[in-house]
Amino acid sequence: MNETGVSRKRGTWxxxxxxxxxxxxxxxxxxxxxxxxxxxxxVLYLLEPASIQxxxxxxxxxxxxxxxxxxIIIGFMVLLNYFITPKTVSKYxxxxxxxxxxxxxxxSGILSHGPIYIWYPLxxxxxxxxxxxxxxxxxxxxxxxxxxxxxxxxxxxxxxxxAVLLVYMVIVSVIEGKLIxxxxx
Length: 185
Hints:
The chain is mainly alpha-helical and 185 residues long. It contains eight helices and no strands. The two termini are 32 Å apart.
């Protein structure tokens, strides 16, 4: 701690205040957007009630479909916030993570399931904690590999084709990640 009682490890009061202001601004934009969408739905309901009811039913079905995955991702985020510190993320997925960071990003990308947009908040939190952008790109790229669909793919295309494709996808994910890191620097 310094003479003002602010820990250097956690950041300064000014930095915390700026972060709070940024969050409040993001929340207000989100509320404006929500209000605009609700207003549009109301106007459209007055013009075409049957279409809006159909759209709301379809949205409800999508919500029911993604709810279990959403609960799992929220659970991951709670566990991450409780058990994993920015220091840990930096160690395994930060600038000095090396090959183990790439392997972790590739493996977790392959094993992850559900709609991709559900994973965005978790990846954002990991980036804020120190995860490299290249590893985020590798994770997202390797989500295209779906383990439950591999037997079907082998049935239609053959083992050799699938093996070559998977190796190619993993290699290209690393190249893409490195390219993103190069562009960022």
